[in-house]
Amino acid sequence: MTATPVLDALGADSSLASLAPRADFPLLAAQPALHYLDSAATSQKPQVVLDALTNFYTTANANPHRGAYALAAAATDAYAGARETVARFLGAKDADTLVFTRGTTEAMNLVANAWGAAHVREGDEIVITALEHHANFVPWQQLAKRTGAHLRIVELTADQRIDLDHLAALLTPRTRVVAITHVSNAVGSITPVAEVVRLVRETSPAIIVLDGAQGAPHLPVAFDTLGVDFYAFSGHKLLGPMGIGGVLGTRARWLECQPWQFGGDMIEWVNDHDSTWNVLPHRFEAGTPNAADAVGLAAAVRYLEALDMRAVREHELALLRSAHEKLAGLDGLTIYGPPPEQRSGVLSFTLADVHPHDLATILDQHGVCIRAGHHCAQPLMRRLGTSATARASFYVYSDASDVDALVHALVEAQRIFASVAD
Amino acid sequence: MSDLQELYQSVILDHNRKPRNFGPLDEASGTAEGKNPLCGDQVEVAVKLDGDVLSAVKFTGSGCAISKASASLMTTAVTGKSRAEVEALFDKFHALVTGRAAEADITKEALGQLIVFSSVSRFPIRVKCASLAWHTLRAALEDGGADAPVSTE
Ligand SMILES: Cc1ncc(COP(=O)(O)O)c(C=O)c1O
User: What are the DSSP calls for B33-55, one per residue?
Assistant: First the structure.
């Protein structure tokens, strides 16, 4: 007999345990009644990450790349080791093609400035989608404005997936950049990356930039086989500290980039009227690097590797299916996005008669933390015809009790709002 | 009453469901638009001044129950008042929702029906929702032409 696939075994079972022990997460351990369902905004941190931060500051703190003493070498090694670990986690063999940034936002601004400003000209075309987070929307919109390039926006299917036919129709030999989210933060849709890559390579010389802010935390990522040019992510959404993230690029594309921030570390030699640049990745990391948080991030990805990203994906899918099943009975509930199989662990919804902002307050009183608002995706909200949705998002520490608390609090919200007669 | 029951008490839910003075105002002497970028609440307030007296106020827009009920109850509270009286009432309302009513010696009587918003002060994130319409009203009273939209951010 063949083994039962994990998902079938779990089904919508309400005994669904968390994948990672809640006890590993000090904030969750200290607040057992808290149902944290806003991991798409930022994740909670395991103790090992906090320990790695403390350990760096207590054993290896010095300015990396600068001092000629053993402690500085320890800091440099810790930082370089973190780069190796994070690159490996994201499936990149060449760790020097990973440039650390503050997160996805800075990464996108880096690519738009370092590659975009050097290669995008008036009359060229930049393609983004209606699904994008503002971080992968506004940098391209502004680059188009500055350069006189045309911004093209791929529209969505009725269930908020990227319309691949529309993408194909927008691609031309003048397309220079295709910037697309790997996974939508607002509704959870997963982009079929292979299909996008095939379409783009067929018709245009464009670079493909993926916003992996919601991809890297929730799906296995193998950068070297994805076929894209740049992949940006944020550490704080994958159990790491705030203030660290990065962007992977192919070596060839990095060499086409101009430095975008200038200062220490990124230079090779400074003459009075000219300078030369350091090698990859330092060329794009001006100033004292955020070594401590990089080390914390490395601890986070090691934690995720031990859980196994395939198991992370399956865990979230099981929770999502269970939530769908339990919410199906609620009157007036609209869930956005494609079916669970094509979504990450994001449940974006509205409840007739109860505004998402009111929902968030009522749920909060039941210990359930969800996000209400436009999710930094106003272009998407306009297309949904709403100003806000409520969003619950799952991660490795989520379990059946979180789903049950969500459902229970939603029923309570409905009861409160139904209490006035017409 | 629990905090939630108090926040979503029947007067508020009723004004949310059936907002008073909702719709466009003919021959408005001033209008203003207010937005709460954080949650997407959006309101437009139109006023008609008869000399110094606010003879009519109406609003349109969309938002959460607190912002809608606040706009609705505000219109009923300020109609027929002078500019100075509106301003004084705004101060009292603001003290109420930010939890300073007691220290400012503001009585229940002075607030009238607006007292239903007293529990907003226990939900600090919602203060902006409750005050959006009031900020927008003040902008509409100042309105001489095309002002920049009011924002709570
Ligand atoms: C899809 C997506 N892109 C970009 C970002 C921006 O990430 P950060 O704020 O960490 O720079 C986020 C998170 O808010 C996101 O969800």
Answer: EEEETTTTEEEEEEEEEETTEEE
Taking the C-alpha atoms of residue A292 and residue B69, their distance in angstroms, rounded to an integer, is: 48
User: CB of B8 within 8 Å of any CB in chain A?
Assistant: yes
pLDDT of residue A7: 38
B84-136 pLDDT tens trace:
999 999 999 999 999 998 888 888 888 999 999 999 999 999 999 999 999 99
CB < 8 Å to B129, chain A: 357
* Residues 249-308, chain A, touching B (beta carbon < 8 A): none
3-state SS class at A208: strand
Q: Choose from B2, B17, B39, B67 for mutation: most chain A CBs within 10 A.
A: B39
| Average pLDDT of span B52-58 | 96
Q: Is the pLDDT of residue B147 over 90?
A: no
Where b means 16+ CB within 10 Å and e means fewer, B6-44 reads bbbbebbbbbbbebbbeeebeebbbbbbbbbebbbbbbb
What interface predicted TM-score (ipTM) does this complex get? Answer: 0.90
Q: How far apart are CA A85 and CA A93, in angstroms?
A: 10
Ligand 1 shell residues, CB under 6 Å: A 103-105, 133, 135-136, 181, 185, 211, 213-214, 234, 245, 376
Q: Which residues pair with A370 in a beta bridge?
A: none
Residue B152: pLDDT band with limits 50, 70, 90: low
Q: What CATH number labels B3-144?
A: 3.90.1010.10
- Beta carbons of A361 and B7 less than 8 Å apart: yes
A110 C-alpha to ligand 1 centroid (Å): 14
**pTM for the structure as a whole:** 0.93
What residue ranges do the domains of chain B occupy?
Answer: 3-144
Sorted by where each starts, the structural domains of chain A and their CATH numbers stand as 4-17+309-421 (3.90.1150.10), 50-306 (3.40.640.10)
Computed over every residue of chain B, the mean pLDDT equals: 91
Residue type, A141: Q
Tell me: the pLDDT tens digits for A253-269?
999 999 999 999 999 99
**Catalytically annotated residues of A:** 376
Q: Copy the structure tokens of residue B99.
A: 């939890």
Output the six-digit token pair for A411: 């029923």
C-alpha closest to that of B112 among B74, B80, B64, B139: B74
pLDDT tens, position by position, A96-121? 999 999 999 999 999 999 999 999 99
A411 shares contact with chain B (CB less than 8 Å): no
Instruction: Count contacts between A and B (CB, < 8 Å).
Output: 58
- B69 has a chain A CB within 8 A of its CB: no
